[in-house]
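Lecture 7 notes: from sequence to structure.
We start with the chain below.
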Amino acid sequence: MARLPERKHTRLRSYDYSRDGAYFVTTNVRDNRCLLSAVRVGRGLAPAEPELTALGEIAQTQILDLSRRYPYVAVDKYVVMPNHVHMILLFQDGAAGASPRPTLMQVIGAFKSVTARLCNQAQNTPGEKFWQDSFYESVLRSDKAYQNAWNYIDANPAKWAEDKYYVP
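Predicted structure tokens for the same chain:
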């Protein structure tokens, strides 16, 4: 029987992902399918911008709903690209109430689960995997790291034509 490659764990081993802080998150659509948007080049000096599909609208709504679902989470910046989503999430106001508050992994897991269910309803594909397993995250521990993540999100649409999944 063939062995699967061992997955690299990018999470910081002793870090508490429920604590206050800034997190840069990227999650991809399964098989990098371009289902969420199409990037349109701006006219003149206008920047390139994603034009959301119906599935991209669902993803955007669920991103914006994170602050309602988790009052201590603020969505500071995001972009819905054709086959992935980038977000900067701020966990703030450390109070968790009577029980421990969810971790970043639980927040993103809930986002992916709800978004997948709604996208599958829209496509009439119940139970199909919508997102790739796991997601990329980075703890933004300095102003420079935060600014780099912000700039990366801002520049991402303009760089879409360089992506290996870009189809003109």
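Points to note: Residues 104-123 form the longest helix (20 residues). The longest strand covers residues 21-28.
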